[in-house]
Amino acid sequence: MLxxxxxxxxxxxxxxxxxxxxxxxxxxxxxxxxxxxxxxTAARRERLxxxxxxxxxxxxxxxxSVEEIDQYNILQASLLAMQRAVATLExxxxxxxxxxxRCPRLRMDAQAIVGGDGLVLEIGAASILAKxxxxxxxxxxxxxxxxxxFASHKGYPTAAHLAALARLGxxxxxxxxxxxxxxxxxxxxxx
Length: 191
Description:
Blueprint: E1 3-9, E2 18-24, H1 42-55, E3 58-64, H2 66-72, H3 74-87, E4 95-99, E5 109-113, H4 121-144, H5 150-153, H6 159-168, H7 179-189
Parallel strand pairs: 1-4, 4-5
Antiparallel strand pairs: 1-2, 2-3
Helix pairs in contact: 1-4, 2-3
């Protein structure tokens, strides 16, 4: 039975979409070093991203937009991105293993595994693909929106990002439903 691993990247940031990836690896695993993307350096993630794409039986990356995050909430948007990633796999898995404690609605059996990105190779591979894809988008946003530091903090609520947000105001890529962004938007409305 083919197993797909699924994970997301970008639930905590104040800006940018949430990404998810689904990966089906061959049963003979030639890759080493796959684990939770947060435990890897950016350079190692980049190398593994290439290796995973080349050796996987199938892989897919999908996202849920900032508008969907604000409309549905971050959990539902994450599940939507995961659902999209699985739906666009070129090979249909018999089982989907999902990092976390919730599974998206799928046509096939699925199982949630807390800490799965560090336990299951397929989930770890998905974690890497999702993180690399999202980080690349945030680097492009850094070019389009100078002054926010998206390339360095990737949209997470660092002190530098919060200072830029207070100074420059939110971009269209900021999640208006997230507290720090919402507070700035509300303060600008009362001025």
